[in-house]
Amino acid sequence: MSGDALPRDFQGPKSVGTSVPRLNAEAFVTGAAVYAADVIPSDVLHLRVVRSSYARAKIISIFTKDAERIPGFVTFVSASDMWQFTRPTPSRFSKDRFPGPLDVRPLALDEVKYVGEPVIAVLAESPAAARLAAELITIEYEPLAPILNPIAALTAVEYVHPQWKTNVAAHDVIRVGDPESEFFRPDVVTVSGKLTVECSTSAPIEMRSYVAEWDPRAARLKIQGAFQMPHPSRWTIAHALGLKESQVQIVAQNIGGTFGLKMVGHPEEVLVGFLAMKTQRRVAFVEDRDECFLARGREQTHSFQIAATRDGRITAFRDRMVADIGAVGAGGGWQMALVTAAVMPTVYKIENCLIDCSLATTNKSPWQGIRGYGKEIGNLVVERAVELLAAALSMDPNELRRLNLNPSDAFPYRLPSGMIVDSGDYAPALKKLEGMRRGWPAQRAATAHDETAIGHGFAFELTPEGAAFPGAVPSGFETATVKVDPSGEITVLASITSPGGGNETGLAQLVGDVFGAAPDVITVRQGDTEVTPFGGGNSSSRSLMLCGAAAVAAAQDVLSKLARCAANLLQCDPAETVFHDGEVFSIRSPEKRLIFGAVALAVYTHPFSSGDGVELPLQSTKSYKAQNVRHVPDEQGRINAYPSYPYSVHAAAVEVSHDTGVVRVLKYSVVHDCGTVINPALVDGQMRGAVVMGIGAALWERMETDENGRKVNDRLKNYLLPRALDVPAIEIGNQLTPSMFHPLGMKGAGESGVGGAMACVINAVGDAIGAEAASRLDTIPATPLRILRALRGANS
Amino acid sequence: MIAHSFEYVAPSSMEEAVSYLTISGHSAAVLGGGTMLLPAMSRSEERPSLLVDLRRLGLTEITERTADIIIGARTTYDHILASPLTQRAAPILVSMASGITGGRSITGQGTLVGSACYANPASDIPACLAALDARVLLASDSGTRELPIREFLLGGFRTARRTDEIATALAIPKPRGQSAWAYRKVKLSESSWPIITVACLVAEGSEGSADVTICIGGLAATPLVGKCMVETEGTGSLETMLRHVTEKIAAPWTDELADAEYRALAAPPVARRVLREALVKYNA
User: Fold this and answer.
1) What is the H or E stretch that residue A188 is in?
2) What is the pLDDT of residue B235?
3) Gyration radius (Cα) of chain A, Å
4) According to the model, what pLDDT value does residue A1 have?
5) What is the pLDDT of residues B14-29, one digit of tens each?
6) A704 — contact with chain B (CB < 8 Å)?
7) Opening angle at CA A85, ends A84 and A90, nearest 5
8) Which segments of chain A have a pLDDT < 50?
9) CA A546 to each of CA A138, A336, A527, A536, A648: distance values in angstroms, whole numbers, following the listed order
10) Burial A494-520, CB ≥16 within 10 A → b, else e
11) Contact B273 A660 (CB under 8 A)
């Protein structure tokens, strides 16, 4: 059923819209929650991966004799042992963008493409034995010159993926209007800028782990682990191992943070399955922090120009971006760079745009999904351009923003990339935010006596959510089964998983309201491919938007069956039945009440009398497919892969030390609009988390690679995540502009905030150090050294 | 998880403890609070074959001797914070300890002596101890000795402790007469280790002058120390001293979080402010 059948004005009593406490909060707070590594039994074999120490090299020989002498060593597997029994790991995303075919395997066969690439899988009876044995395996390499500079890679004649004969993994040119000639008009002010964004990583506190079990008699493989997309993982693993999907079960435990990391396509997912089948033993893998840090993202350079008339009407924007996506693996992280290009120029109405986006593949580890999924960088670039333009025009940046925001009556509007922005109300959101700065320390420059300066910064963020890329498995729909058992228990089987944000509570609220039941009596099951319907798990902030709508449709279907039975019992019309607070009655004689569970039981026990006319079973499965998605190219050859466009506008006050360049974020406010909100506290929680990630990415988080392509950072002491004391209270204001393309008016929530935080913090730092120095602050994160350099007249 | 196997002993006397080191000093490690050693072992960066745990030796007391206060090998930052003696005789250590992050698993576990032995240039301890003219007390099978901290610290993660020795305590001279202090560190963020530390002590000199000691940690592999005598009002000689201290750095320090360029830029202005703060306190 499509969402059209749902009532536009959702009538529910009415936990929806209220901050119902998270259903499973107690388990998390008391430590009772079960995470992936908790389910690893004591008698498993432990996998340790021997990884390449070279960015690019030929594998000459592998020496294992010393490792085999370690007590507890069991076996090892190399690509040559494995390739003949397995198939390439498919990518969840279409590879149509790529210049040619690409086979991705979990272990490198004869050439390594990045430091950290798996070469040998070692199995031992204990984690310690596996590590010691792995350390004693010697791989002889013939080093090749690594391709590490993405700009040079674009035109190099040596290739990361030789079969492609190019290092340009994808190229997209987005154009609207006539940007070239706009920049040459004599009456415009043009500002140029560069922005380099360094590599950062998702760094969840819980790292990845898996345990695989092969049942030889049933010929079935069960893998439990840190999966945010269990069904797509089943699909990829089954393909790689040559199994039927029905032979593979994926079970996802609670997730202790993912932010995109635990999507599909990690080599170890396939390795544990293969090794469990080969050894007929259970095989476990637990990632360490150094391995977790192989997940790269965001690394890219932008050269942009923005032009406006002297009175501040922005006429043109262009950007040339090169993203360093590293080697291409089975995961879909590289796609983030294309989203960066597609989101520009975000909330602003600019008639002439040219965005040229190249994805360079290099000898670094592959990109993995990271919160914001590229949108954060597109927003950052646009907001920096607006800020620099305001300085050149001697205008207040927010006046410039106001002049150029898409007006509230412009929706839906088309972005140059073909995205159709569903709804919004930008200017009032900015006005509301400006009113939230009461009590903030005033802006001031540093003086001889006072080492610090205080700056304020603003930024908009447009956050396309609910990605439905053509060719993705799955693309743009989610599914829920709702059933009522004889005891009256209402169960939701959801195709989505919760990354810790609480969407199970949102589902219970939505479904509970349909049945007139409290959310805490609803059972929600997620994350087991044997139990839940096929779906995308968790990605692109679409969980509740898509699966919530599906669950409401399924619940309404089951309710109509119960209403038939209740009508029989109450001798009224089904349309007159009311389900309220665990009871059922006729609106015409409310004094006669049935217990909800009694009605359910009657359907099971008296189908020929009380249940007469009820279409069995007391269960319904519905999918909800996103609206506002266009896969058939429009007249300009573009598609729209995102159905919903929440936005937010952010403000920060920062203090910058002119002595040390150290930045403290003093105040933070944000106005957020994601349409209809199911649970305000949970949405605010997501926003706060995203803002903190954005602050971290703007100021501190930085994954460095040395000149040989080796990662410098290996632990949370040298990759600086924000801590509680780094972050002020985050004040949240709300706007509510329902999406016209969703039956409940919902838009995605979850990723919103990363890009707005990055941009407003950088803008605030720029305000504190002054426009002239700010124009030199061209590298993210804005580390203290870069700020000191900008203050002293050098580019960062 | 520590992958490699090793012997573990927790001797009940210092004699016994040092005897283990005499036998296998080169491959042994002394375990104090373990906040650095154990993570390094779990990353396989340190692989001692013998771990000598000091936990049965007490050594957590902070005591007073004629001219010194003595800080035992297992005295933690929390002990420093709770001690009236350090409050009175070495308040700069209290200030330093109050800035240690990581929660109680660090402040209640990490030790000052352990940190001195770890000798990380990017840590709080070296500059503070250098400013205090602390001495490290060492014990071995062949007896005991004391080394001034500036002779003890040889470089980044290098000390003069022999592999058969255990650092048993720090001796900190008690202040004589009027004194004042200031301490600051530069961190990139809360989770950052200290990049630059500056400790300054001002003590009463002869005939109305003040003896100023300033120590800058994190700029070079070992703390840079400047001393000068100033008239109560005049500060011109301080600028000269500061230039002298910060301009000729034989071994500039660099690590994953900050390179030498940043340290060289950030250290002088911070040192200037710390100096000023200490002098203002002294003159008040």
Assistant:
1) strand A188-197
2) 59
3) 27
4) 33
5) 999 999 999 987 899 9
6) yes
7) 95
8) 1-12
9) 49, 21, 16, 10, 21
10) bbbbbbbbbbbbbbbbbbbbbbbbebe
11) no
Find chain A residues with C-beta within 8 A of B189's C-beta. Answer: 699-700, 720, 722-723, 726
For position A6, what pLDDT does the model report? Answer: 37
Q: Report the candidate in A713, A706, A736, A703 with the shortest Cα–Cα distance to residue A200.
A: A703
The edge-to-edge listing of strands for the beta sheet with A300-309 is: A168-176, A352-360, A314-324, A300-309, A188-197, A779-780
d(CA A333, CA A343): 17
SS3 content of chain B, % helix, strand, coil (to 5): 35, 30, 35
Contact A326, A362 (CB under 8 A): yes
Under an 8 A CB cutoff, do A660 and B189 touch?
Answer: no
The whole-number pLDDT of residue B232 equals: 52
pTM greater than 0.90: yes
Helix axes A680-699, A503-515, angle to 10 degrees: 160
Over the stretch A525-550, which tens digit does the pLDDT of each residue have? 999 999 999 999 999 999 999 999 99
Are A784 and B262 a contacting pair at CB < 8 A? yes
Tokens linked to A658: 């002119």
Cα distances (Å, whole numbers) of residue A101 to A83, A92, B31: 17, 14, 55
User: Across the A/B interface, how many CB contacts are shorter than 8 Å?
Assistant: 82
Judging by DSSP bridges, how do beta strands A730-734 and A779-780 pair with one another?
unpaired
- CB atoms B3 and A131 under 8 Å: yes
Mind telling me how many Å the CA of B258 is from chain A's nearest CA? 8
pLDDT computed for residue A316 by the predictor: 98
Q: Which of residues 719-748 of A touch B (CB under 8 A)?
A: 720-726
* Distance to chain A for B273, nearest Cα, Å: 9
- Taking a C-beta distance cutoff of 8 angstroms, is the pair A137, A120 a contact? yes
Task: Please return the burial class of B281, using the count of CB atoms within 10 Å of its CB with bins 0-12, 13-18 and 19+.
Answer: middle
Which 3 state secondary structure label does DSSP give A670?
strand
Evaluate whether A751 touches A690 at the Cβ level (below 8 Å): yes
Other C-beta atoms closer than 10 Å to the C-beta of A32 total 9
- Specify the pLDDT at position A658: 95
Nearest Cα to Cα of residue A248 among A263, A238, A240, A236 = A238
- Determine the pLDDT at residue A339: 98
Cβ-Cβ contacts under 8 Å for A130 (sequence gap 6 or more):
A46, A47, A48, A72, A122, A123, A124
Residues A295 and A336: beta-carbon distance below 8 Å: no
pLDDT score for A10: 36
Name the CA radius of gyration of chain B, rounded.
19
In the chain, the amino acid numbered A67 is A
Per-position b or e across B197-233, b if 16+ CB within 10 A of its CB = bbbbbbbebeeeebbbbbbbbbbbbbbbbbebebeee
Give the dihedral of Cα atoms A514, A516, A517, A523; nearest 10 deg. -20
Contact A784/B at CB under 8 A? yes
pLDDT band, very low/low/confident/very high, at B233 (cuts 50, 70, 90): low
Q: How many CB atoms within 10 Å of residue A477?
A: 21
Closest Cβ opposite residue A785 in set B3, B101, B262: B262
Question: How does the average pLDDT of chain B come out, rounded?
Answer: 94
Helices (H), chain B: 14-24, 37-42, 77-82, 84-89, 91-98, 104-107, 112-118, 125-131, 149-152, 236-247, 260-283
